[in-house]
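Data availability (excerpt). All sequences and predicted token strings are deposited with the supplementary files. A representative entry, Hemerythrin domain-containing protein, is shown inline so that the format can be inspected without opening the archive.
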Amino acid sequence: MEKWLNTGIQEVIKQYPKVGDILNNFNIGCTTCNPGTCILGDVVGIHNLQPEDEAEMMYQIEKEIYSHREVVKAKVEVNSPQVTEIVYSPPVKELVDEHVLIKRWLALVPKVVEILQDGKRDIWAEVKQGALFCRHYADELHHGKEENILFGLVEQESEIIKIMLDDHVFGRENVALILEAAEEKDAQKAIKHLNAFKDMLTEHIKKEDEILFPWIDRKLSSKQVGQLFTQFSKVNQELADTSLKYKEVLVHLEKAILS
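Structure token line:
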């Protein structure tokens, strides 16, 4: 299996489509992941399945790939209670909490799109404010903590880190185009990039909350958790005005768009 554990997951699924079904059965959604460039071995490690679930999944995958030979399932001893609830360290929980605010803007996007399509209401000020919320709160504050602090504590060449960074770039590009559309009052352009941004960031946040952040937390020492907390606190102090301003902007947007 060594060869396949070091092969990109989409290539594995391309050659053995049923592997995608097996992963889905264990709530690993590689078949719908847009990049799909993580290697199979990393996919298994990052998702942190319970030992018996991982053994069963790998048994099924190996049986599918090596259908011509007998495959023996690895024996697993369970010596401690199983924990399924995700428990984040305090600094990582801070990032998860910031996601909650960002998702409140994403939840407004379908209504914004509906208003733009209808064309009877001037919503350009809200489109611009929403894009600026994404630029300054979601990107400058939140993604800044990830890129400049958190990601530096793990392997920079990890495929999942590369994917997250590519998502950040994609997001910045779309925010810039949304702002352009607001200046031009180009509804179709705004709709295109609002939807692209929403779809990407919704999936991005889910990956971070459920996969990336728990994986990073498992790697952090107590000392590193303390360092993260200190560094995040410094950023929060430096960008306190920005954070407060855009939290207030979000409340205004919810009232204005949903009224």
